Amino acid sequence: MFNGIGVSRGFGIGEAQILERDQPEVAEITLPESALGQEVERFHTAVEHARTQLRNVLDLIPRDTPGEIESFIESHLLMLNDPMMHDGPIRIIRELRCNAEWALKQQRDAIVSVFEAMDDPYLRTRKDDVEHVMRRIQQALHNPEGESKPEAPQDWHGRIVVADDLTPADTVHMQHQGVAGFITESGGQLSHTAILARSLGIPAVIGVHEARRYMRNGETLIIDGQSGLVIASPNRATVAHYEERSDALKRRIHELISLRDAPAVTLDGDPVTLQANIEIREDIEALRKVNAAGVGLYRTEFMYMNRSDVPDEEEHYETYIAVVRELRGAPLTIRTVDIGADKEIDDDQVGPLAHNPAMGLRGIRRCLIDPTLFIPQLRAILRASAKGPINIMFPMLTTVSEVRQTLALLEDVKASLRREGERFDESIPVGGMIEVPAAAVSAHQFAEHLNFLSIGTNDLIQYSLAIDRIDDQVNYLYDPLHPAVLILIKRVIDAGRTASIPVSMCGEMAGDPRYVRLLLSLGLRDFSVPPNAILEVRQVINSTLLADVLRYAEKIIASSDPEQQNALLEEMNAGVDSIMEQDAYSALFH
Ligand code: PEP
Ligand code: MG
Q1: In which band, very low, low, confident or very high, does the pLDDT at 588 lie, cut at 50, 70 and 90?
Q2: Which of 106, 132, 254, 349 is 20 to 30 A from 9, comparing alpha carbons?
Q3: Over pLDDT 90: what percentage of the chain?
Q4: Model-level pTM greater than 0.85?
Q5: How confident is residue 64, by pLDDT bands cut at 50, 70 and 90?
Q6: pLDDT digits (tens, 9 = 90+) for 399-426
């Protein structure tokens, strides 16, 4: 057994195919001045050859795969035009009067050492791309007639490939031929190989050190792309066990896909709104795949991260209209920035964080004392609301006076936009997140001023139970079933009902299939969950007869014994099988 990093869900069972493909040995050969022109020509031809090979690979990419795959290959094509890749070696050929292979190797070593010195793990990983492109040119120099495919065997069908590393182009070739999975010795979660494996749905385990030394060609291998486990030469019972698990996973995926276009409605006929949480614009693609009803929470703080300045109004605006456009008429709930606490940003942007940031200036608190941070975002959201249905939502509300101040500020911003002749949705719905216990207890007062409420259980649980949500040491106390939490949730839902305004839940609790029936029983009809939880949550909703399960909710709230609560929850969840094979969704879409 070997352990690596599981980068794409699913099981692969097949014959090992060890891929030995180290760099060809390169020696320095000194050339006479008269031969240099010809050597440069030889280098040009090799680059051209590499380009043709990569273009051929583009034709093999399955049509229904995400655009990122094509862009990986295209980025390699672009690198071939980069002066570093191109002019650098030519300069070395002339300066050292050497062969093209040696010049290319010198240039490779120089570039790789620059990448290795980088602090950013993502950029450091991009060294692999340089290696892949240079290796391709090196191989074209070595074997000018060579094919673009990896070395023999040409038929990867049903094999588990074991390699030092795989280029995006290799990966596409192998997927095209029905490879059963792959194992690489190098690479990390962020490597293109890993991203590609997920996108192409190939079970893969990477970072299995010395895999090629210990595994033998032709032996049976089982890989678990989720846990990163690799089993070599398993006995028959183990193979049978994994075949069964693999079949069950496929069945489950099939079941979930069939729910893609199904409306979310309980067996009693109660419709439920099922929206998605997004963090970056690119998440929209995942949301579309599962047909979410819109975005219930757009966490905008990610626009502020990994940079030293803050986004200006135009950047906000361009981002929001791009998302609105991609949503094609589905509603978008933009949460104004909630920096501070676990969403750390650069000190240069807004000054140092408090000693206890979770209790400090975060969310609406920071925005209200720093209008220069807040107003550009409000203006951009309002302007974007002219282009499609947008709701605006404020995080971390504690007092109703914060709501009053925020609404007054919003009115001022609207007035200045009107003066400037800017269009916006005059009746843009305005909502507040209920994630501070004080706000939950007085939710009825908040409901008088707002068009909707959204329960942020991640923070509500953190503050109710006094446990830092990112502190592993107290993680064991993080319990959505704590009666205090359930009472607060119910109180907010009831306040919304009394005031006739919608109440949604956008914390992680809403996306956990185990809690869906309980939340429905507490009266929740609006869920906003991570895109990869939509299908499972929809399945639970569609399999729920509220009349049958309602009675459990009160018993669960009334119990102070977690064991009893879990037993009741299990009973309430009878027939919900999605819980058994969690992450089945990911096997398909990632
Ligand atoms: C929450 O607190 O539940 C929530 C959705 O907001 P965040 O996780 O971004 O703090
Ligand atoms: Mg929160």
Answers
A1: very low
A2: 132
A3: 62
A4: no
A5: low
A6: 999 999 999 999 999 999 999 999 999 9
Query: At 340, is the secondary structure helix, strand, or coil?
Result: strand
* Annotation marks residue 367 as catalytic: no
pLDDT score at 581 = 45
Question: Helices in 61-126 by DSSP H: which ranges?
Answer: 67-81, 83-96, 100-116, 121-125
Alpha-carbon distance of 335 to 374, in angstroms, equals: 12
If you compute the radius of gyration of the chain from its CA atoms, what whole number of angstroms results?
Answer: 28
Q: What is the 3-state secondary structure (H, E, C) of 379-443?
A: HHHHHHCCCCCEEEEECCCCCHHHHHHHHHHHHHHHHHHHHHCCCCCCCCCEEEEECCHHHHHCH
Using a CB cutoff of 8 Å and minimum separation of 24, what contacts does 192-195 make? 192/72, 192/125, 192/128, 192/129, 192/168, 193/7, 193/128, 193/165, 193/166, 193/167, 193/168, 194/5, 194/7, 194/8, 195/68, 195/72
The beta-carbon contacts of 45-51 under 8 Å, at least 24 apart in sequence, are 45/140, 45/144, 46/100, 46/137, 46/140, 46/141, 46/144, 47/80, 47/85, 47/86, 47/137, 47/140, 49/140, 49/144, 50/80, 50/133, 50/136, 50/137, 50/140, 51/77, 51/80
Query: Hunting for tokens 């001023």 — which residue is that?
Result: 449
Question: Residue 495 class from Cβ within 10 Å (0-12 exposed, 13-18 middle, 19+ buried)?
Answer: buried
Cβ atoms of 231 and 241 within 8 Å: the answer is no
Nearest residue (CA) to ligand 1, atom 6: 456
Determine whether 590 is an active site residue: no
Question: 131 or 62: which carries more pLDDT confidence?
Answer: 131
Tokens for 136, please give them. Answer: 């391709």
Ligand positioned closest to the Cα atom of 458 = 1
Average pLDDT over residues 108-114: 89
> Tell me, what amino acid is at 295?
V
Ligand 1 test: best mutation among 337, 455, 459, 488, most atoms within 8 Å of CB?
459
Q: How far is the CA of 397 from the centre of ligand 1 (A)?
A: 12
| Contacting residues for 178 by C-beta, under 8 A, at least 6 apart | 156, 157, 158
How many angstroms does the Cα of residue 581 sit away from the middle of ligand 2?
Answer: 28
